[in-house]
Amino acid sequence: MTATLTRPLAPAVPVSRGAIGGTAPITGPVVPAGDEACDYEYSYDDLFTERLRAAGQSVTHLQTPLPPEYVTMTPDELDARIWAAKEKLGDRLMVLGHHYQRDEVIKFADVRGDSFKLSQLAAERKQADYLVFCGVHFMAESADILSGDHQQVILPNMAAGCSMADMASIDDVVDCWEQLTELLGPDHGIVPVTYMNSAAALKAFCGRHGGIVCTSSNAAAVLKWALERGKRVLFFPDQHLGRNTALSMGYSIDDTALWAPNKELGGNTEDHLRDSTFILWRGHCSVHGRFRPEQIKAAREKYPDVTVVVHPECPREVVDLADLNGSTEYIIKVVTEAPAGTTWAIGTEINLVNRLQKELPDKTIFCLDPVICPCSTMYRIHPAYIAWALDNLVEGTVVNQIKVDPEVARWALIALERMLAVK
Ligand code: SF4
């Protein structure tokens, strides 16, 4: 990335820079933070939370600025710092890397995986006191919920949230629940189901109300579980995963309603809500929501023998046209196990697709969207933040700890354990 700023930022809003970094403007090499619109690059100063927010970026958690020394280090210097800190911390440290992280970050990961797999791996590594999660906020929360009391979860950049998770706030979900209860009565038979990609507060909501968590691997089994216990499902935050899964189970689009937060009855008629088996929250992933049927048609024209595999967070029309769809782990497995010489068009995050391309040179692998952006919030985990977090751990200071409120964690764990019991 270069220092080019191709879209003007709104004027900076003064923010407190806390104890770290002082208040003087920091100049130095560019530290890329994200690329929401693919025509947008950041200077270091743009990393400050208020600047990101002013630029229309999703930022729900505040990150204190880095000390200037980390901003001016070269990539090689940052790498050396990180490797040295890892060596000093040894088994006390576990670095978890989500598949969507760029190579400059994933190379430091002790384990790679999707969000749920990483949380499980973290919980199993009991000797690790520090779990440095190179992912996004909700993933670090899940790791905290599933890990032991002696383990501390660290998110190198607090501004690494998830735009999808942010689309369902606990207040909006409670409001929806109250409206539905008023309409359908206390015997409404709604089972709340939240996707793994949601705040801990929503997982706790599900735990409290007889609901459950799902991942993109087990969504159908979880929805079946829910409908064995109730009459209908309230599914959040990803409408696409909910809709694609309901259709794959044999339900029709008429069995679904789309709930728009901040609208009376979510924008639905009373009759439609009464008749719906699935009430889907109007949220989406900013990465997977970009894939289009035209991209699949173009891939098939260029490579008639191509196999198209997409993530179920993609829109329905895309999933319908694809040959296969499944979770990130499924996509990795199916492409890795495919015979040499096969051609794959993949509808998921670009860092993962590029890595598959590199690691499987005997196959032709490309991303369905030729101009796709990386996950802009995941991208906020830069090696400079990792170096800063690890250096602090070496000194015995824990920065950026993600600690879920114990009561929230208790109920969220109940919803997660229900999921783990689903076969
Ligand atoms: S890829 Fe989508 S769902 Fe995953 S962290 Fe990024 S915005 Fe959230």
Structural account:
The chain is globular and about 60 Å long. It has helices at 49-54, 68-72, 75-89, 103-106, 115-124, 137-146, 163-166, 170-184, 200-208, 219-229, 239-248, 270-275, 293-302, 316-321, 328-337, 350-359, 383-394, 406-421, and strands at 93-98, 111-113, 130-134, 152-154, 190-195, 212-214, 232-236, 256-259, 278-281, 307-310, 324-325, 343-347, 364-367. The chain folds into 4 domains: 1-72, no CATH class; 74-161 and 377-404, 3-Layer(aba) Sandwich (Rossmann fold); 165-286, NadA-like (Rossmann fold, 3-Layer(aba) Sandwich); 288-367, 3-Layer(aba) Sandwich (Rossmann fold), CATH 3.40.50. The chain is built from 18 helices and 13 strands. The model is unreliable at 1-51 (pLDDT under 50). It has a 5-stranded parallel beta sheet with strand order 6-5-7-9-8, with helices on both faces. A 4-stranded parallel beta sheet has the order 2-1-3-4, with helices on both faces. Strands 11-10-12-13 form a 4-stranded parallel beta sheet, with helices on both faces. The protein has 423 residues and is of the alpha/beta class. Helix 3 runs parallel beside helix 17 and helix 5 runs parallel beside helix 6 (137-146). 48% of the residues are buried. Iron/sulfur cluster binds next to helix 7. The site of iron/sulfur cluster has 13 residues, from helix 7.
